[in-house]
Records
---
Amino acid sequence: MADVTVRAPAKINLHLEVLGLRPDGYHELAMVMQSIDLADTLVLRSTADATIRLRSDSAELPSDGTNLIVRAAELLRSRVGLPELGVDITLHKRIPIGAGLAGGSSDGAAALVGLDALWGLALGPARLHGLAAELGSDMPFCLEGGTQLCFGRGERLEPVTAAGAPGQAVLLIKHPEASVSTPWAYGRCRDLRGDFYLDAEADFEQRRQALRQGPLVAALAGQGPLPHLRNDLQAVVEPEVESIRAGLDLLRRGPGALAVAMSGSGPSLFALYPDLATAEAARDALAEPLAALGFDAWCCRCGGSGVSLVTDGSAP
Ligand code: C5P
């Protein structure tokens, strides 16, 4: 069988609201996530030696059983009860690691989709979604992509129609030496804001409804300007990380930005623009201070899909 190639796009958070703490220890969230066209690529080749092997072009990334790609492959193989299946996976890494862009989750979701095709399992969307949710809170979104409301741990998805969205492109920046641990960011949020967490499902639902009917979702549907973007983790992470404060300040000073925020638990930051040309003009205008502060920068379109098969293995 021919190789299977899968595209694994990154996401940004247009809204991240921490509602409360759940009995399972995770936070109850209300988010809007958006795919962008910065993507990793996975190439999968079937082997007959019952081994799951991963190599990547990133020296920073573990290729052992702690990698979500390997965990996804092992979970899938054990659930379908076919331990004899083997695969060689090559990962071409473009999404920065530990950045709040769900790069690891998207790679894991891409492994599920790619192996489903490579091994001819035909599991269907509901089973893939269930496996993704077991592996990581952001992973179901990474499967679906686009613009989605994400509730629960992040795995309960409701699509948003983003037809007339004002924010069609982003300037994304990240300091190469900055990293934020997601559990640390949520722990810090709990320490600082836990007293104000909501408890009752009725209160959670009221916040979900406020988001569904609020100005952000209206703006994404082309009805009104983008409001200020809320990220509750930004409020607790920003005071701790100097490069986040400097980067946000810089993006706010750039020309043409519709909104500026941190993505997920950070430390990547983004500014939204009406189109790619305006994002690129802002990057050019900010080139000197971005270089002086040592930021990496990308201009990306806001994308319409999650992980996707580039080649499905059916070619001769
Ligand atoms: O689900 P995932 O493994 O990606 O989550 C990583 C960590 O982020 C969790 O172990 C937890 O500390 C935190 N988290 C949380 N509430 C969520 C999602 C993640 O507290 N809804």
---
Amino acid sequence: MSRPELWIGTSFKMTKTRVQAVAYARRLLAEVGAGVPGVTAFVIPPATALAEVSAVLGAGPVLTGVQNAHWEDEGAWTGELSVPQAADAGARIVEIGHSERRAHFGETDATVRRKVRAALRHGLTPLVCCGESAEVLARGGSVDHVLGQVESALGGLPSGPGGLEEVLVAYEPIWAIGEHGREPRPEEVAAVHGALAAEWGDRVRAVLYGGSVTTGNAADLLRVPGVGGLFVGRSAWEIEGYLDLLATGRRHADATG
Ligand code: PGA
């Protein structure tokens, strides 16, 4: 049996103008427009650039996504955008529950759960982010915390197509994310990914790791059992960084395929 595909993607968070995002997408198309063997690449630009980036990448193998979407399809929800609107702009992936949204914008396990169902209702792939704080890590509660978040997000979903089979999970420990984060040790990642793999590994599409991924640690992180891909911020915001990470993914897929 062949190994499942690896997923390697980036969110631009609140960076890049439309011109910058389109230039990035054009370079990506030129370099890997035909796809990366063994790897599914995806880019999640700011919403302002989603339609243009999606148009550049077209119906090709590199997917685009949206960083957040509401659980309702339309209505009086000022400042929000819906899954159908994201799909209309080309998104195939809906990122849900990133810790920055949980910390600053009132995202809760309950809203994450509703958004997962909204994405699935419209045939998009939910990318559900989970991860514990430094305090939870320090008291040894990482596994329980993360399993609780994922159970809350995914519990009760049907298995198979249109259900769990479409879902991506990203383990993103808060203490590892962003410029104040620290690189995780492989054994820290292994502890949580082992538990996620045991509980969800056979049922969801893939479980990714994110948080201080770099071109230097990506190969080691991909070797951690249960890690089915990488979800990357800063290290992929320059196209060379992302291309390097995709090449690392390809080498990993070649070596293990
Ligand atoms: P980082 O962000 O790679 O810049 O640490 C990761 C994330 O928030 O997904």
